[in-house]
């Protein structure tokens, strides 16, 4: 790609911004790279952009170049503990779309109060890595259909965005599953990062309010605690009252927030 943008001011150094690939922009000053921008398409079709630059004028020029090249709507995500970056995106015309609260979730049952939690009558918890691929994919599809018919993809974390191939064999070891009457009715997904991340808890709509999500969480946290992990990380949409109540009810501590911004 060769679209080039140069927007020097009278008192500012000349910075050239060029689109160097389908997904990458580069800012150069005196043959030295001083910043860059990237775009990626999420599996729900939305375009997310990011900019890495130390100086505000460079950030603004990269953002302007990307906005000139890309169709709207465009999205980005910022950590709310970084107000300077959020302010930079607002200068580019982005406005808040949604917020996710970050929680530190204790795994010790003495803190969470989950030590005595057992699955509801007739429900069995299938440990991570032991779920049958076919029924798990069927549950995955059913949950996606329920999301599409209700809140929509906008409020969902990456783990439940529509993916053409659904759950892959590599994913199976990340899912704890609830089984009832021979069917998979709920799941919990963990990501094995430095601080394990609870990326998703989802239960079929007709099985809500029976304690299945709490039982899945109790199992997952117990496994982590036995492995020597003191806490996990979870992110919850601020409008998801049920998930907020679930995590705060087990002693999770709010420890940050991510803000999704959009330019339409």
From TrEMBL:
Gene Ontology MF annotations: acyltransferase activity, transferring groups other than amino-acyl groups
List, for all copies, the residue spans of the domain called N-acetyltransferase: 123-264
Name the SUPFAM superfamilies on file. Answer: Acyl-CoA N-acyltransferases (Nat) (SSF55729)
Q: Name one Pfam family in it.
A: Acetyltransf_1
Looking up Gene3D superfamilies in the UniProt record yields: 3.40.630.30
Q: Which InterPro entries match?
A: Acyl_CoA_acyltransferase, GNAT_dom
Query: What's this protein's name?
Result: GNAT family N-acetyltransferase
């Amino acid at each position: 790609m060769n679209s080039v943008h140069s927007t020097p001011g009278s008192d500012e150094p000349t910075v050239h911004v060029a689109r160097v690939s389908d997904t990458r922009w580069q800012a150069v000053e005196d043959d030295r790279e001083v910043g860059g921008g990237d775009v990626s398409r999420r599996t729900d079709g939305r375009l997310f952009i990011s900019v890495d630059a130390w100086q505000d004028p460079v950030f603004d020029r990269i953002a302007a170049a990307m906005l000139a090249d890309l169709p709207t709507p465009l999205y980005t995500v910022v950590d709310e503990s970084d107000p300077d970056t959020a302010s930079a995106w607002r200068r580019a015309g982005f406005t808040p779309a949604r917020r996710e609260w970050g929680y530190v979730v204790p795994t010790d049952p003495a803190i969470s109060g989950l030590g005595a939690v057992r699955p509801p009558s007739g429900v069995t918890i299938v440990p991570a890595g032991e779920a049958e691929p076919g029924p798990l994919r069927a549950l995955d599809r059913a949950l996606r259909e329920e999301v599409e018919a209700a809140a929509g993809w906008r409020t969902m974390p990456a783990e439940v965005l529509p993916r053409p191939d659904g759950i892959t064999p590599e994913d199976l070891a990340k899912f704890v599953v609830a089984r009832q009457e021979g069917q998979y009715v709920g799941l919990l997904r963990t990501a094995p990062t430095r601080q394990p991340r609870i990326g998703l808890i989802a239960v079929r709509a007709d099985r809500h309010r029976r304690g299945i999500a709490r039982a899945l969480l109790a199992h997952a946290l117990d496994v982590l605690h036995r492995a020597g992990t003191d806490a996990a990380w979870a992110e919850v949409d601020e409008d998801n009252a049920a998930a907020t109540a679930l995590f705060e009810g087990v002693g999770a501590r709010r420890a940050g927030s991510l803000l999704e911004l959009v330019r339409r």
